[in-house]
Structures are given as structure tokens and as C-alpha cells.
Design a protein that fits this description.
By secondary structure, this protein is α/β, with parallel strands linked by helices. The protein has helices at about 20-25, 40, 50-65, 80-90, 105-120, 150-155, 200-210, 215-220, 235-240, 245-255, 255-275, 295-310, 315-325, 330-345, 350-360, 365-375, 390-395, 400-405, 425-435, 440-450, and strands at about 5-10, 30-35, 75, 95-100, 120-125. Helix 10 (about 245-255) runs antiparallel to helix 11 (about 255-275). It binds flavin-adenine dinucleotide (FAD).
Length: about 450
């Protein structure tokens, strides 16, 4: 009997899964495998919110495989060792996996290939599973990746996508291969309003968004109070939704909303091709501006105020509180809180990126680190010294104060636009608010940043 192994990683779905399709086509039976690798836990990347979401994704994947006559085999240990063990136990001929784009994933892939080839087995790495257009597919003439989004996007739009693959009808798993229980949900440190994970809920969410959300996307995507973006980021990070399928579906739908939404998916691929070409950009600056950032050592109180949502700037505090409560934050809010930390408070972007990675259920090395670098002006932004003013941003993107009122109950009695500048309220009103004074004067923060970057205030 010919047996294949499918190693699931950041692609926890059955629909549009080319590695599973290829494994089924090649074999009489397959082992759908997921490995809980202590190296990921030890790296700190398995934060409580993502661990909880992962639990749901694995349970859902197992249930979907069981409906088709199979099951998910879960193993714990170093990925390469565990895959080789399963291959030996099942006497499998080949392993299928989706291409990953972080240093960890690329290194794992190489070691797996070497280990399998040593025993005469083959590794098949499938591109375009966790991205729509794989890194390296489109490159500028003189470089191995694009460093500016606009020309990348032009090429990305013109790149043909592979066809969407149907979910399998039946999956036969050999009886002799056993696994562990899916790890139980502990709940400690998990955001109270974390959404459920799993392909089933992600596909239901997508169906609702095509029906009710997509057409208005372009008009509402920056409206903090409307909260009208897709919230597909966690399903995309865990692969319960396929980027290829989303792009195809949105293009079929058509219209300005769909075009704008597809553009955001191009940003996702853009950051991945930067990370794949420059793996160190997860931690080191792509383009140093010779900053002497403030860090935990010299800015502890400011950092704590930012993390805890008590900076005295309502829209910043609303966003930071949403992050803890939901494990998610609106894109406009991510931009303005990142600008506030790096430019107004002049604190190292890595401090902010680490805090986001701890809480974000969609916390993703490429998207998080490279968006932080973009906002800090050390990455791919063509206007690296831009500073977002939290008052102006609040008035523009939360004009009626709905977002601030939702997350900062102390300010519910203050109407917009004054809610974005509570320090302008008369002394008596301010005294009853129990809301902090600003941690920094915006003009002073701006001057410090401009001095540091060698720009005249
Ligand atoms: P939508 O607006 O509905 O967009 C659809 C999809 O497009 C998103 O799900 C996402 O996959 C992609 N997308 C949208 N905006 C961007 C962007 N700027 N860059 C890359 N892809 C994008 N996104 C993450 O998935 N994980 C992160 O860890 C992450 N950290 C970020 C940190 C900072 C400082 C900033 C400014 C942005 C970060 N983003 C991150 C990008 C973006 O904010 C989120 O993807 C988006 O807010 C998720 O909400 P949504 O799914 O409703 O997005």
C-alpha cells in the first residue's frame, strides 16, 4: 500500500489544500499530521490567545477529517524527528507540506528534506498555500524581492493564481499510526472576547462577509467605530482560510470594495516576500535611521502606560484596551498606536512588536514585525519620518467617538470631538473623569523625534 504523510502547519483546513490533494492523489492512504513542537513554545511564540485559537483549529480539523473517514494525528516533539517517526511507522513514501517563509520554517523544511532523503523518501513543498503569490514569483530586475509596495502590487495584480482545490470527499488514514490528544484548553491569560478558531467558523464568517461586508469595505475600512473590516487575519494566520480562494472569490464579486480588500491581501504577500528574502528583518532594522531608541530601561513608565491603555490619549488607550480584551485591534488603531509608541514616545519598535505578538490572535512574524518597521520608518515606508497625531487621527477616524466610548468607559459622558482631547475640558469636569493626563506633550514628542532623525522641527 502506498502511504503519504501531510504535515499541517499554518494551513489548518481541508478546502483548497494542495498538499493534501497531492498526497491523496499519490497514495492509497494518508497520515494527516500536526506536530506540537516545543521549539515554538520555547520561543515564546505560542502565546495564550494563539494557543487557544490553535486548539479550536485542531479540534475542527480533526472533526472534519473524521466526517470523511479519517482523523488528525497529533504528535509532540521536534518536528523533523516526529515526521520521520511517523514516516517509519506508516512506511510512507513521501511527505507533503506547505512552504513557510520565516527563518524557522525554511530551516525546518531543509532539515526535513535532508532527513527524509537519507532514508530514501521525498519531501514535496507546495507553494501558494499560505500566500496567494509566493515569495520569489515576482521580483524586480536588480533584487531578489520588492522593497516598495506600489510596484510590487502592480506585478502582483498581473500574476495568474493557481486554481482553487476542492475539499476531499474521503480521507483514509492507516490504523497503525497513533497520536496524542489535542492539548486541552487552559484558558489562562486568554483575552475574554477571543473569537473561536477553526475552518468551520472561518468559512461561515467569510460567507457572511461576502454577503454583508465586502461592498462597503473601501468606504468603511478606516472607520474605527464601524468595525467593518473582515477580521480574516487570524483565520489567515492559522490557514483556516485560503488566501488564493479569498482573492479569487473577491475578484469574482467585483466592485471597489472587493478591489480594496484584495489590495490588503497583496500587502500580506508583500511582507512575506520581504521576510523570506531578509529573515533577519523579524528582529533587525531593514533600513537603520541610526535611532537611539528609548527602551524598557529608560522609559518604563511610558511603556507601561502604553501597554495598559492609560496614556491620556483616548484613541490610543481605546486601541490598547481592545487588544487585551479581544486579542485583536483594528488596522487604523494598529497604525496610530505604533506611531505613538515609536515616534511620539520614541520607544524601540521591538518593544511594541513584542507586546502585540503576545496579545494578537493573528500575531504573525511577517505582518507584525514588518508593519512595525513600516511605522517606525525603518522598513519599507517611503515616508519614514511621518508621524500620526492621535488627536487628529481620533477626530478623523472616530468622528462620533463611538470607538473611544466603547473601550474607555471613563469618557462615555464626553461627546465628540472633545472626547479626543479631554485635557481641554474645564478643570472641574476633568477632575470627575478619573482619566489620566497625557503622558507626553505632542509637540515635545514631535520635536524629540525630529531632532533624533536630524529633521528641523
Ligand atoms: P482587513 O482590513 O479585512 O484586511 C484583509 C486581510 O488583508 C487581513 O486579514 C490581512 O491578512 C491583510 N492585511 C490587511 N492589512 C494589512 C497590512 N497592513 N499588512 C499586511 N496584511 C494586511 N496583521 C496580521 O495578520 N498579523 C499581525 O501580527 C499584524 N500586526 C500588525 C502590526 C502593526 C503595527 C500594523 C500597523 C499592522 C499589523 N497587521 C497585522 C496588519 C493589519 O493591521 C491586520 O492584518 C488587520 O488589521 C486585520 O484585520 P482584518 O482581518 O479585519 O483586515
Amino acid at each position: 500500500m502506498h502511504i503519504s504523510v501531510v504535515l499541517f502547519t499554518a494551513d489548518l483546513r481541508l478546502h483548497d489544500h494542495p498538499p493534501l490533494r497531492a498526497a491523496l492523489d499519490a497514495a492509497d492512504a494518508v497520515v494527516p499530521l500536526f506536530v506540537l513542537d516545543p521549539a515554538i513554545e520555547e520561543s515564546g511564540f505560542a502565546a495564550p490567545n494563539r494557543r487557544a485559537f490553535l486548539h479550536d483549529c485542531l479540534a475542527d480539523l480533526d472533526a472534519s477529517l473524521r466526517e470523511r473517514g479519517g482523523r488528525l494525528v497529533v504528535r509532540r516533539g521536534a518536528t523533523v524527528d516526529q515526521v520521520c517517526r511517523v514516516v517509519t511507522e506508516a512506511d510512507a513514501c513521501e511527505v507533503h507540506v506547505s512552504a513557510g517563509h520565516s527563518a524557522f520554517a525554511m530551516h525546518r523544511e531543509e532539515r526535513l528534506r535532508t532527513a527524509l532523503e537519507r532514508s530514501g523518501r521525498r519531501l514535496f513543498v507546495h507553494e501558494a498555500v499560505t500566500v496567494a503569490v509566493p515569495p520569489g514569483t515576482i521580483t524586480p530586475a536588480a533584487c531578489d524581492h520588492f522593497t516598495v509596495f506600489t510596484p510590487y502590487h502592480r506585478h502582483w495584480e498581473g500574476t495568474p493564481l493557481r486554481a482553487v482545490v476542492a475539499a476531499p470527499g474521503r480521507v483514509r488514514v492507516p490504523d497503525e499510526v497513533g497520536g496524542e490528544e489535542i492539548p486541552p484548553l487552559t484558558g489562562t491569560g486568554v483575552s475574554p472576547a477571543l473569537p473561536p478558531g477553526g475552518e468551520g467558523s472561518a468559512r461561515a464568517q467569510a460567507a457572511a462577509y461576502w454577503r454583508d461586508g465586502l461592498d462597503a469595505y473601501d468606504d468603511t475600512r478606516d472607520d474605527l467605530g464601524a468595525d467593518a473590516t473582515s477580521r480574516f487575519s487570524a483565520p489567515l494566520h492559522f490557514g483556516t482560510l485560503s488566501p488564493v480562494e479569498l482573492v479569487q472569490r473577491a475578484r469574482r464579486h467585483g466592485g471597489a470594495g472587493a478591489r480594496s480588500f484584495v489590495r490588503q491581501l497583496a500587502w500580506r504577500d508583500f511582507h512575506r516576500q520581504v521576510l523570506a528574502a531578509r529573515p533577519s528583518s523579524a528582529h533587525t532594522e531593514l533600513r537603520t535611521r541610526h535611532d537611539h531608541w528609548r527602551t524598557e530601561r529608560d522609559a518604563r513608565a511610558d511603556i507601561d502606560a502604553w501597554r495598559e491603555g492609560r496614556t491620556g490619549y483616548p484613541v490610543v488607550d481605546a486601541a490598547m484596551r481592545q487588544l487585551r480584551e479581544e486579542g485583536w485591534m483594528h488596522n487604523r488603531a494598529r497604525l496610530l498606536t505604533a506611531s505613538f509608541l515609536t515616534k511620539t514616545l520614541y520607544i524601540d519598535w521591538r518593544v511594541g512588536a513584542a507586546h502585540f505578538l503576545h496579545w494578537l490572535v493573528d500575531g504573525d512574524l511577517a505582518n507584525n514585525q514588518l508593519n512595525w518597521q513600516w511605522m517606525a520608518g525603518t522598513g519599507t515606508d517611503t515616508r519614514p519620518h511621518r508621524v500620526l497625531n492621535p488627536v487628529t487621527q481620533g477626530k478623523k477616524y472616530d468622528p462620533s467617538g463611538v470607538y473611544v466610548h466603547r473601550w474607555v468607559p471613563e469618557l462615555r459622558g464626553v461627546a465628540a470631538p472633545r472626547v479626543h482631547e479631554p485635557w481641554r475640558l474645564p478643570g472641574l469636569d476633568r477632575a470627575v473623569l478619573a482619566y489620566p493626563e497625557p503622558v507626553v506633550d505632542l509637540a515635545e514628542g514631535l520635536e524629540r523625534f525630529r531632532r533624533a532623525r536630524g529633521k528641523r522641527p
